[in-house]
Amino acid sequence: MPADTKLYLYLDPGELIAKAPKAWDVSQFGGWVPHQMIQYLWPAGPWYWLCERIGMPDWVAHRLWIATLMFLAGLGVFRFLRAWRLPLAGAAIAALVYQLSPYLLPYISRTSVMLLPWAALGWLLLLTMRAVRDGGWRAPALIALVSCTAAAVNATAFAAILPAPVMWVILEWRAGRLHTRQVVMATARIGLLAGATAVWWVTALSLQRRYGADVLGYSETLDAVTYTSNSIEVMRGLGYWLFYVKDPYAAATTSSIPYQQSLLLITVGFLLLLLCLLGLALTDFTQRRFAVLLVTVGVIIAVGVHPYTDPSPAAAALRGSG
């Protein structure tokens, strides 16, 4: 059993949920402001609490949790691409490629809650499309619920997926397929409802950032987390720093070893990448510009300030602000 995210998800999920809403924890260090506890109020905490209540073994609960995230991620992409009128086979293949990406591997046993924004991406795109095209409050309300579920775990991870729906709206508007009034009204509805559902976790994280221990200052410094995020690894779906960490006993992510040592697996990975890029270059479809922009912006965000000692001008400004 891995100690995924918080060990108390397995040992005592009820107590973890009870402590999650509080900005002051008296059970440790004579009292302290805990680090990122609010996120376990929903949805990870209730998941493991329910599994415990029905007597499900922890290892089964964990694997079902991962499988559910993978299923929802693939289904969201599939539904979005079908709304694009992509053929059934194409949408299914794209969903499977997204669902089974090696991007998952370093998160599965360690910080699986970080996969929530990844799982939400397809749904946010689909619901944004409906909110703008159909109007009304239903799609914005669903966006608020998805955001409430996926964003509390890590605001930075959630922010990394937000450019996708924004870029789609801008491209559709510039192409004349959306009217300005549609965009403004949908944006106002989404902002109102998503902002309201975010107050609970934004407030808690602000208090924890201001008064809590500077955990990231010594556990995940910017130069450390960007050391491995070069563009080649990012394009392979990798690049996350903990994917490459080793100690004298074993690799932190044992599944990373074949991706770094197996010539066959490395070759297949690059061939798949090349095939995908050729598809973007040679296939003519309505949303190709958005697909190309999605890949380009995604790589830029994922690479970040790598290399830390000589980043791009834009990334250097980001590093200075951080």
Word description of this protein:
By secondary structure, the protein is mainly α. Helix content is 66%, strand content 0%. Helix 2 runs antiparallel to helix 3 (44-53), helix 4 runs parallel beside helix 7 and helix 8 (138-151) runs parallel beside helix 11 (180-211). The radius of gyration is 21 Å and the shape is globular. The relative contact order is 0.09.
Largest sheet: none
Broad shape: globular
Question: How many strand elements?
Answer: 0
What is the average of the pLDDT values? 89
Low-confidence stretches: none
Gyration radius, rounded = 21 Å
Approximately how much beta-strand content do the residues carry?
under 5%
Structural class: mainly alpha
- Counting DSSP H or I runs of 4 or more residues, the number of helices is 18
Topology summary:
Layout: H1 8-11, H2 13-19, H3 44-53, H4 58-83, H5 88-99, H6 105-108, H7 116-134, H8 138-151, H9 155-161, H10 163-174, H11 180-211, H12 216-219, H13 222-225, H14 231-235, H15 256-261, H16 263-282, H17 288-303, H18 313-321
Helix pairs in contact: 2-3, 3-4, 4-5, 4-7, 7-8, 7-10, 7-11, 8-11, 10-17
List keywords for this structure.
66% helix, mainly alpha, 322 residues, 18 helices
Concise structural overview:
By secondary structure, the chain is an all-alpha fold. The protein contains 18 helices and no strands.
